[in-house]
């Protein structure tokens, strides 16, 4: 265990950067430089935290000098540091893309100074969610993320975005109320909200009360992670936002919900056997999501349903409940953060060239934009889990974990294979309809005064570069599959053991 101020920086730097971008609101160049510099610095800090956590154990920061469980602590262990690093890299690439797409502060005819501060506030909320050591601060982190996302998803709206934004806001507020109620019930029952302290106190509660609290946690974070049947808000909300916003939400926000489930289920409500409820939810989520994708003609809605489907893959690893399953989920989250964000960025590139999201109105892009075809093909095949991509490595880890968990996990492992094949079929259909055939003329921009340029039959270099960078990260995950799997395996062992986290936060009082 290492005590350090480093875990504070991924939260503090974006907040200070957000304030600085407000002050520099009259200078587009200054705002962009601040945003990129802050996220690059956070990525560097996350790298240091990952190295320290892997070598020496969790890195702990006692905010305000008060020790746990009384004070607020920020904790960077292998899992949280790894997810913080990959999330920050994705956020940085999305920001570069958004700057060039001109959805940031200065559009074509109007100017605003909201995007950069809100973007950095969202980054601070994500960092706090990964690093916080207590339930109430986790609630605060979600509220920071949601408040920022409300602004991003409704900027410069039309009627369609307002309707989808209302759905998103309403469901988010309901889940936040449920989360706050859960925190209150946990505190009333145990007298603490510190995660490490709860690991021992919840075990002393009556079995029935433990079950109720565990179910509340699953429902609360299930909404935020878009687990079927709590997913209905996502396909109606994400596709209507600009590509960078959708990429950021798809890559990060649902994964924070998965992380919260991972942390609370392993630390507070551990199970020594496969969870039947989570196995059922995983199977249903995988199938409903991929079948919903096959029914779509809208490219963004198709990707949104595939996002829902692959949430089920992560829930499957959590349902297995052993170290191998947890490690498989961690590896899958790392892979999916990158590939899902990449696909939505590439979707934005396709829309920019064609002027539409309708698959029926596209065709022949492989001839006119071969680089764009490559940028789509690699993450699409990665999402489907075609060897030797990172998706294949992550799914193989999940299947290996499920193979030894009994008949129930073996059945759901078969559903993993089926959902992967259907995902491959879905992305191949997109490839055929978008990139093959005779080239079609781009549709005209039906709103030349809004913030997005579409139907141009061309795309600028920085947008390509940002998308290609994320493709390269996905390829790097596959190349470094051995070391990365070793890290997630050690993370899974720590999460199941619970002792390293508790000891790091509570000292010797956290040891059994």
Keywords, separated by commas or semicolons:
Na+/H+ antiporter subunit D, single chain, mainly alpha, 20 helices, cell membrane, 73% helix, 2% strand, three-stranded mixed sheet, 512 residues, 3 strands
Task: Describe what you observe in this structure.
With 512 residues, this protein is mainly alpha-helical. The protein has one domain (2-510). It is built from 20 helices and 3 strands. It has helices at 9-23, 28-56, 78-101, 115-131, 135-154, 159-190, 195-201, 207-225, 233-237, 243-267, 276-294, 299-320, 323-354, 365-368, 370-384, 390-403, 407-435, 461-479, 481-497, 499-506; strands spanning 2-3, 59-63, 72-76. It has a 3-stranded mixed sheet. A hairpin with an 8-residue loop joins strand 2 (59-63) and strand 3. Helix 3 (78-101) runs antiparallel to helix 4, helix 10 (243-267) runs parallel beside helix 12 and helix 12 runs parallel beside helix 16. The longest helix is centred in the middle third of the chain and has 32 residues, at 159-190. It starts with a strand and ends in a 6-residue tail after the last helix. Residues 105-111 have low confidence and may be disordered. It comes from Pseudonocardia sulfidoxydans NBRC 16205. Residues 133-419 form the NADH:quinone oxidoreductase/Mrp antiporter transmembrane domain. Belongs to the CPA3 antiporters (TC 2.A.63) subunit D family. This is Na+/H+ antiporter subunit D. One of its GO terms (cellular component) is plasma membrane.
